[in-house]
């Protein structure tokens, strides 16, 4: 029986231990570890690493050479540009203070959540333990070290907010999008 998804012959995926949705495409030299869940319609580019138990929503696009480590959750419709790296350990060390090699029990995963529709630009690094809001836009080459609000445009090292974006991706200069004409209500914090 033909599978309802595509896995390139050079990809390393134990299809019996990974949940792969209908219409998913997993391209060359990608490795998907056991326990990962990939939603319908998602495309995973060449040379991507998806760690164990990572959850990826529907209709996501993960470009070439991305590392998605254990503890990362990508909601539906997330775009991850080429060479993006997620982290999962706030205090990374190879060894303990006594110089013994660290084991799985010697570290704690800090989870990262990327909300629906968010986009992360090429060559960005996402520090663990943060949330990226829905429809947020992370500029290329950014180092994201703190939570990103919904619809926020952030970039830089460290990334800081430089306005807001529409769902279509255009920077908002007023209460409506110059491209798609969608109106937004600006709510100021007190």
Q: Can you give me a brief rundown of this structure?
A:
The chain has 190 residues and is mainly beta. The protein contains no helices and 23 strands.
Can you describe what's shown?
The chain has a single domain (6-91, 103-172), classed as Hexapeptide repeat proteins (UDP N-Acetylglucosamine Acyltransferase, domain 1, 3 Solenoid), CATH 2.160.10. It is 0% helix and 29% strand. The chain is built from no helices and 23 strands. A hairpin with a 5-residue loop joins strand 22 (159-165) and strand 23. It is globular, with a radius of gyration of 18 Å.
Number of strands: 23
- As a percent range, the share of helical residues equals under 10%
- Kindly give the count of domains: 1
CATH T-level fold name = UDP N-Acetylglucosamine Acyltransferase, domain 1
**CA-atom Rg in angstroms:** 18 Å
Biggest pleated-sheet summary: 10 strands, mixed
Shape: globular
Helix count from the secondary structure assignment: 0
**CATH architecture term:** 3 Solenoid
Give the N-to-C terminal Cα separation. 59 Å
Write the layout of secondary structure elements.
Layout: E1 6-7, E2 12-13, E3 19-20, E4 25-26, E5 31-32, E6 37-38, E7 43-44, E8 49-50, E9 55-56, E10 61-62, E11 67-68, E12 72-74, E13 79-80, E14 85-86, E15 112-114, E16 119-120, E17 125-126, E18 131-132, E19 137-138, E20 143-144, E21 152-156, E22 159-165, E23 171-172
Parallel strand pairs: 1-4, 2-5, 3-6, 4-7, 5-8, 6-9, 7-10, 8-11, 9-12, 10-13, 12-15, 13-16, 14-17, 15-18, 16-19, 17-20, 19-21
Antiparallel strand pairs: 21-22, 22-23
């Amino acid at each position: 029986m033909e599978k309802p998804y595509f896995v390139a012959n050079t990809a390393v995926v134990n299809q019996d231990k990974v949940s792969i949705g209908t219409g998913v495409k997993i391209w060359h030299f990608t490795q998907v570890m056991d326990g990962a869940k990939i939603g319908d319609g998602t495309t995973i580019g060449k040379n991507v690493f998806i760690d164990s138990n990572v959850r990826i929503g529907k209709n996501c696009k993960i470009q070439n050479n991305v590392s998605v480590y254990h503890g990362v959750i990508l909601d539906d419709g997330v775009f991850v540009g080429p060479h993006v790296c997620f982290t999962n350990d706030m205090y990374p060390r190879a060894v303990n203070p006594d110089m013994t090699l660290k084991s799985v029990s010697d570290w704690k995963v800090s989870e990262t959540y990327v909300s629906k529709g968010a986009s992360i630009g090429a060559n960005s690094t996402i520090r663990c333990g943060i949330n990226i809001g829905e429809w947020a836009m992370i500029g290329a080459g950014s180092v994201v070290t703190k939570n990103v609000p919904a619809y926020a445009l952030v970039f830089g090292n460290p990334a800081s907010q430089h306005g807001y974006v529409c769902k279509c991706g255009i920077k908002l200069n007023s209460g409506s999008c110059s491209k798609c004409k969608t109106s937004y209500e600006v709510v100021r914090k007190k």
